[in-house]
Amino acid sequence: MTSGQFNSAATEAIQDITNYYDNITDRPVLPSVAPGYLAKLLPTSPPTEAESWDKIRADMESKIMPGMTHWQSPDFMAFFPASSSYPGMMGELWSAALTVPAFNWLCSPAVTELETVVMDWVAQMLALPECFLSKGKGGGVIQGSASEAIVTCMVAARERFVTRTLMKDDTVLTEEQKEDRSAEIRSKLVALATKHTHSSTHKGANIAGTRFRSIDTQLSNAFALQGHELRATIEKLKSQGLEPYFLTVSLGTTNTCAVDDFATIAEVKKDYPDIWIHVDAAYAGVALVLPEYQHYCKHFASFDSFDTNMHKWLLTNFDASCLFVQNRRDLTDALSITPAYLRNEFSDQGLVTDYRDWQIPLGRRFRALKVWFVIRTWGVEGLKAHIQHHLKLSDLFNSLVGSRSDLFTIITPPAFALTVLTTLEKANANTKKVYEIIDQGKKVFLTSSLVGEAYAIRVVSANPLASEEGIRKVFGLLVEAAEQVLEDKA
Ligand code: PLP
């Protein structure tokens, strides 16, 4: 494809994309294809001869679109949203155009330096404590996902725990003895989370090769982890000869957007400073742009790391998981390995940041561009208004649900534009039937979940295109389905 051909093809693609967004509500949010549909439409072998772009372009609509779930549709209220915006897309386009896997500063100084600047901006926007900014010992790095951020921190936590334990022992060890002793220490390590923490912590522990234990939390506390529950777990594990070394606390769990009790957990951390505490704020963290949520931040100075996905709720296209650490040395001590081919005078002199040492992969995308474009296009005030808009829609939904207390119960306090509800009568069986009616209707996409013992329906009003009309639509569908289920029973 020549630059002239690219110009025409890209211009058409932009038209197709804007048409897609302008008319997205004409498409059912969920596809109706059967598994394996695409293989039947495509040749089994790659084309021998070059194909025209026009032919390729036409296949987007005829072959790909039927198999798409439209996450950007306002009828998508499932899981958590995956934000998209035109400035975010422009960042992606430029990133693809430049294609620089800038693992070291020298690989493209602008990639590293923009990331440092915008991550400091994000930290300030979210009112994170100063210790997470790059001017001190801390700093931020853009990861691909909240799961990747957790496993990265877990590996750093594991190695920090091993090093600190070795340092407490005065015995002089040979390199081989040190390695054996380190392996012995690692074999006792336990990562912790609650039963409601996202499964990425369990997966992280599997990858890091340590044990994992989950702590029970109570419905009466809206499933938020309390300091005394954590302390009891730590003491029990230690009495068994095991060593808790990592804990994920949540600002917004996946099921119900529960927020763990940071104040009492911070008290426990004082007695167990070697346990790395990571704040998983994958979805809800960006709500910290609003002053009314910033009271949570004061406790974060007691914790080691914080991560939020701008790609979930803050208008930035996938992927932009913003990880902040208090001490960047914790990451680089665990992850920095410098063979001769990666050495250069700037890195050797310690003058620059090499983000390859803050992450698992070597190469990295130019993700800071889209973050920069989004923040500049909206400004902090615009981003606050964006979150506020969704919170207001959620208030509307909650008041509508409250007006039909004969049909529905909200089972945990609505939070961060998420409502979790069940039907009133024969809750589990009927809620499941209501969910199935909604799911089969394909007019909106919701998710169901098990919250404690309860089968529940989650409604999220944080999609970039969410609107009052959409909120009234989903409520109407829920009422219709619930009434049908109750009538069928009568
Ligand atoms: N943490 C929470 C609270 C989540 O809700 C999710 C996903 O929805 C994750 C972590 C994992 O996110 P990612 O897909 O970025 O790994």
Summarize the structure in words:
- The structure is a single chain.
- With 490 residues, the protein is an alpha/beta fold.
- It folds into 3 domains: 70 residues, dopa decarboxylase, N-terminal domain (Up-down Bundle); 265 residues, Type I PLP-dependent aspartate aminotransferase-like (Major domain) (Aspartate Aminotransferase, domain 2, 3-Layer(aba) Sandwich); 112 residues, Aspartate Aminotransferase, domain 1, CATH 3.90.1150.
- The chain is 46% helix and 12% strand.
- The strands form 2 sheets. The protein has a 7-stranded mixed beta sheet, sandwiched between helices. It has a 4-stranded antiparallel beta sheet with strand order 8-9-11-10.
- Strand 8 and strand 9 form a beta hairpin.
- It binds pyridoxal-5'-phosphate.
- The site of pyridoxal-5'-phosphate (PLP) has 15 residues, from helix 6.
SS elements, strand count? 11
Major beta sheet summary? 7 strands, mixed
What is the subunit arrangement here?
single chain
Strand content: 5-15%
Describe the strand arrangement of the main beta sheet, using strand numbers: 1-7-6-5-4-2-3
- In the CATH hierarchy, what is the architecture of the largest domain at level 2? 3-Layer(aba) Sandwich
Low confidence ranges: none
What is the end-to-end distance? 65 Å
Separate helix tally: 16
Shape: globular
Using only C-alpha atoms, the radius of gyration works out to 25 Å
The CATH class of the largest domain: Alpha Beta
CATH superfamily of the largest domain: Type I PLP-dependent aspartate aminotransferase-like (Major domain)
Domain tally: 3
Based on secondary structure, the structural category is alpha/beta
The proportion of residues forming helix, as a percent range, comes to 40-55%
